[in-house]
Amino acid sequence: MNDAKIYEVLKQHFGYEHFRDGQLATIKALLAGKNTLAILPTGGGKSLLYQLPAYLLPGPVLVVSPLISLMQDQVDRLHRNGEKRVLMLSGGGQDRRQQLSQLSQAKFIFASPELLANPEVVRALQRTKLSLLTIDEAHCISQWGPDFRPEYLLLKQLRHELDDPVTLLLTATATPRVRHDILTKVGLSAEQVVTIVRSVNRPNIFLAASELASSDEKQTTLLKLVTTLPGAGIVYFASRRLATQMAEWLRENSTLAVAAYHAGMPSAERFRIQQQFMDNQLQLICATSAFGMGIDKDDIRFVIHYHLPTSLENYVQEIGRAGRDGQQSAAVLLYAPGDEQLARQLTTTELPPAGLYQKVQQGQADRRVLGPDYELFDFYIRHHYSISQLRESFGKRQSQVAWQLHQMQKYASLTSCRRQFILAYFGESTVEQTDCCDIDEPGWLSKPLLPPRKTTVVPKKNERWDTQLQRLLNLDKESNFHFSNLDKQ
Questions:
Q1: What is the domain-level CATH number for residue 190?
Q2: pLDDT at 205
Q3: pLDDT tens-digit series, residues 347-386
Q4: What's the mean pLDDT when you consider all of the chain?
């Protein structure tokens, strides 16, 4: 495929004259029939990497995506660009059968890993000659499973069942170890894949961390930050309860328009808050990790973490939501003694006793006796995992999680450049940069690193959101994956 044709499609379907860094190389590899792992930073235009080739390839593109909201966002964008040949697989019964009967007419098919574990769906896809299999947010393959959403472990089997189509793996962050893990879990070797990596470095994001003595000091520091830093911001919490409480406390102690957001809230409320934030009716969101993927707001000026994230991968993904317009922004980590214990609790899943597991496996006990994670263990029972296999798999996962958390703790207490530490963690060469982080600019908060706060303009009600809200509510009821599983605290 010559470059002229690719640029013609870029202009015709997307209205762009030029590619961002890494896009053209990825697209050319896919059009040449090569499996590709593309690691491009947040805001790097990853959706174009599967959307453009779809117009140059004969069959549909299947996109595996982790969240309903993320899929719906992509569907809406395609519709706004005039593309109507889009299917988002959901629901069951007659609705699903009707969707499956239309697969051959679609150009884009979106589905969750849970839905793609359904034999009826797989059989229908086998009758459809796919041109491309795209796994969006591919770091989830390494990050999730065995202890969360284990259906990600079935993607290797899915590829084979679909006759090993050309595969695109997309993510914003992946260390060399995670890259290897992703490829292994989808059944590909490094020799079978073109890997295109662009730096995780976001020079416009100032990096800072503050080690505090107590929760009271942390709360006071948060108030100072959100009332000093300009523009829209996100504060991440490890707990739903604290996200809600702190949103209320900040409303009472500042003039900011603040709301909480977490997976335990009703779908309508989550959607409404997200759109109010996008439309500048809210300046600050107090959220759990459920608020993130698919948040396409270019002018987020700061991201604050009130608790220690569980890994640098997660941290870089989340701070990457700031400054997507290229303007100066800030990422601040607040850390107090004991934070690591909370992070450890969030990443620990207890295995059931061997005897109990075997009784359920043999049909001698109801699966609910396996405890609150019975659905997780039911997956392994249905896929014939022994308790010894589970011990080995979960043991490896816990060792990995412990190492990642240790690296996150090291970042929090650094006395040397934070940016260099992150780049080294991801296997990149270090860079020289002024105004880089709080290590070389300790008085950064009192300096004009960021532009002055702008007055919030509240736009008129957008009726389009009402239509999208109803559609999301219907999908949330039908989905095999419940959004509330994203954060459990």
A1: 3.40.50.300
A2: 95
A3: 678 888 999 999 999 999 999 999 888 888 999 999 889 9
A4: 87
Instruction: Please give the tally of structural domains in the chain.
Output: 3
Give the residue among 274, 272, 269 at the shortest CA–CA distance from 285. Answer: 274
How many whole angstroms separate alpha carbon 310 and alpha carbon 398? 12
CB 270 within 8 A of CB 330: no
pLDDT in tens, 265-298: 888 898 899 889 999 999 999 999 878 766 778 8
Residues 221 and 234 in one domain: yes
Inside any domain, residue 124: yes
Claim to verify: residue 318 and residue 185 sit in the same structural domain: no
Provide the domain limits for residue 258: 205-342+405-485
Domain assignment of residue 128, yes or no: yes
Distances (CA, A) of 106 to 41, 54, 101: 29, 10, 10
Q: pTM (2 decimals)?
A: 0.84
Kindly state whether residues 361 and 465 are assigned to the same domain.
Answer: no
CA distance to 96, 100, 157, 319, per residue, from 118 (Å): 11, 12, 12, 35
Residue 355: closest CA among 387, 332, 403: 387
Please indicate, yes or no, whether residues 389 and 259 belong to a single structural domain of this protein: no
- Tell how strand 232-236 and strand 205-211 pair up: unpaired
Last residue of a domain, one of 173, 197, 221: 197
| Inter-residue contact 247 to 259 (CB < 8 Å) | yes
Listed residue (172, 197, 169) closest to 185, CA to CA: 169
